[in-house]
Design a protein that fits this description.
Chain lengths: ~210, ~55
Amino acid sequence: MKMIVTRPQYDITTKYLSVWAGEVINFAQKKKIEVIDLFKDKANKNDFTGRVKKLKPDIIFLNGHGNDDCVTGHDEEKLVEAGDNYDILRDAITYALSCNSGKILGPKVAENNEATYIGYKDKFIFVADSNYSTRPQDDPRAKPFMEASNQVMISLLKGNRAGEASEKSKNKFKEHFMKLSSSQADPDSLQAAQCLWWNMRNQVCLGNLDAELK
Amino acid sequence: MARLSVLSKDTMISLGSEGSFTRDELIKSVENGDNIGEKLAEIQLEWLRSFKERVAV
């Protein structure tokens, strides 16, 4: 089984996403899954397209910025786009941890009955503590967001169906939301709770919801 | 605005490709009514709607 991960890293947001994606990579490697890690400038269109076409991965984990019709790699180079190479995702389960791509790119990919696309139809937002920007993996404010997001990948790697993996992730967002909402006296927790709710509401699972890793 | 002003100084919110913003930058955005300020208002509205949903559950 093969997994391709894109992990651009050139600003605070991509640094957080790429570092936390490391947890998914470790989990996959423990399960003896072959991981192709396109890190930093390796997360470019040529490398990504070439690897996907050649290796035909079962699962693709995109981390980076995005908009309605694309997900980008290092330095915001478009890796996959609705009007261009979207069909390279047709044989895999894709999870895009990026903003907005669940709006146009996701539905375009999911036009193929076999493809699955999990993403966000609006911004993916997270709260962080600036004191941890050099070690995002230890940031307690970012943890609920990254844990809930990673739940999609962890569930898929455990063999859950795509629809179930997305549900489990949404439940994780909700669990953290409830916990932080109850800390009414702490304004930081309340702000984080609002953003967790936002992400939960905007996560979409499109296409073949029964797809699973075999 | 009042709610943002009581956030810790170290709190940062990442809004995708728009960037990451400190408390003071967020307050300025709300004051200016720019894209970031509007998005924060949208997030808060969605959260307020959640009460209705949670009551229904």
